[in-house]
Amino acid sequence: MHVLHAIQMERTKEIIMWRISILLVFLFLATYSYGQNDQDKITGTISYKTSANIYVRFNTTDEIKIGDTLFILKNNVEIPAIVVNQKSSISAVGASITGELLNKNDILYKKNIKKGIPDQRTDSLPVTIPVIVNNQDSLNLHDAAEEKKTSPDKKQIVSGRISLSTNASINPGESENHQRYRASFSLNVINIDGSAFSVHNYMTYRYRFGIDQQTNFANDFKIFTLAANYNPNDKVNLWVGRKINNTIANIGAIDGLKYEYKRKEMTGGIFAGTRPDFTDYTFNEKLLQLGGYVSHQKTTDAGYIQTSLAFAEQRNAGNTDRRFLYFQHNNNYVKNLNVFFSSELDMYQKINDVKSNNLELTSIYVSARYRIRKNLSVSASYDKRRNIIFYESFQTYLEQLLAQETRQGLRFQVMYSPFKFLSLNVSQFLRYEGSGKPTTNTYGNVSIFRFPTKNTTTSISINTLESYYHKAVIYGGRVSQNIFHGKAQLELNYRNMNYTYLGSEFNHVSNIIGASFNMIVVKNTSFIISYEGTFEKQADYNRYFVTLTYRIKSKKNDIFKIYNCNSYPRFDDQL
Q1: pLDDT string in tens for the chain (575-residue length)
Q2: Domain end among 84, 113, 142
Q3: How many degrees, rounded to 5, is the angle at CA 479 between CA 473 and CA 480?
Q4: How many domains does the chain have?
């Protein structure tokens, strides 16, 4: 018996050691995968609960979108817990969709997050924003209002960013060599000293040397957000200053007052003030505007549903310039299917002193995305919105032309990841203009992860564009490498562009080579340097970009990450 007992004890010890070994192996693999920027999950903790919503705090919500489902693990079974209907930079908010009791400090997570792989999610699709600030600094400004909802004790939260950069064009023998300097500053103070007051700010200044400065201070200095907020409870929300309201984002920034009241699933609001001047984005007291809106938000077993209806009247020098209705709807009635729709209906217009009270549908956008399987999704969209004004953009001039050329029309897209290391993306665009030849655009991209090394991502792409006056074929390739344990990234890219203008013999060929390096210098401070060379028959062009960014944070245990190079400012003519 003693011998049998001793044998059983030895077997028990052996089983325990095996389990410990297996556990250590899994911990190592999990840590290794995290170091390689290939996470299977993003986890968060329930920080606060109300009768209607659950607040989940994450280290970052960059990979979480509105409409995503967060899960909880109960008895080794994954159970859908909440659907995200609001988010901030570090928190997500949603209503419970499970019968399980959710408590404070419970761990929730989002599945299937893979850095660099297109996310096959059924999130809400983009909202039209006539005044777009396409910059990383602006991200905190649009979600800062939700930030305070994650802090029931009204603790002060400070976040922001200071960025200094320079962009230069160096072309031997060229008279238009120039250098630009740009500084940006954003600061959000939520619940100042524990109160119900908050302030939000984002502004930039740029200046160019080497060629004639054709602009004045008003053109160089831009205030995109400067507003104060009073939020005494979950129902009342009062804004004063300049800010874009996401509920009615299509109207653009409002210089003035906005009052919002929320009751259960309904939200109502009114606003009054002016529009920024459309030439230099300064304050213009002649461009008065006022209006109101109602919004309904609900989370069901099928998913998230949101509907907004707004009315606005815009004036110019006291005269009515435009009166219109704005409608927006987003739903997930069917599992794995997201449908988004927005439109504008003009009720009054005055163009060239000609008044019109006829109802006219002046803007429409509809899209649908269906996830067939976890690794396969298809989408379609129709865009007939008015031209979008970019007061600030970090796209290259070519990218801006391509985006404008292929925005309005029909688009179909398929995203497929047959293996964990492989992602495929194919899209087709079509636009008809009168009786002429339609504009077509076909794009294909293949991305291979952990190739040729574990820390490398390689992608190749082809883009063909054809219209009634030209053809274009663009080949491209990109290789990015994470180094220094993920705290730095090196990227090389190449593009070959071949343009042929129909009806003429003119053919334009460009070879573009680019390289960039970015890294975390010290805590909250990142540095990036990029080079781009364009080589043509007629001439060669060389440009570089350098930026230093410091992130302001009042939170401890910050997690530093390297942004993909595509999210950093790149060579553009509007810096």
Answers
A1: 444 444 455 555 555 454 544 444 444 443 333 333 334 567 788 877 775 678 888 877 777 877 778 888 765 556 778 878 777 777 888 877 665 567 776 778 886 543 333 333 333 323 333 333 333 333 333 344 444 444 445 788 898 999 999 988 887 666 567 788 999 999 999 999 889 999 999 999 988 876 655 667 888 899 999 999 999 988 999 999 999 887 777 678 899 999 999 998 899 999 999 999 988 889 999 999 999 999 998 877 767 788 989 999 998 888 888 899 999 888 888 888 989 998 888 898 777 777 878 888 888 889 999 999 988 999 999 988 776 555 555 555 556 556 666 667 899 999 999 998 899 999 999 887 666 678 898 999 999 988 888 889 999 999 998 887 788 899 999 999 988 887 889 999 999 999 888 777 678 889 999 999 999 888 889 999 999 998 888 888 888 999 999 988 775 333 333 333 333 333 333 32
A2: 113
A3: 135
A4: 3
Report if residue 97 sits inside a domain: yes
User: In terms of Cα–Cα distance, which of 156, 213, 152, 211 is closest to 188?
Assistant: 156
For position 56, which CATH number holds?
2.40.30.20
Beta-strand pair 439-449/456-466: antiparallel
Contacts of 101 (CB under 8 A, 6+ apart): none
Q: How far apart are CA 136 and CA 551, in angstroms?
A: 11
Burial label for 183, CB within 10 Å (0-12, 13-18, 19+), is middle
Both 61 and 4 in one domain: the answer is: no
Domain of residue 474 covers: 393-520+530-541
Q: What is the pTM of this model?
A: 0.63
Would you say residue 495 lies in a domain?
A: yes
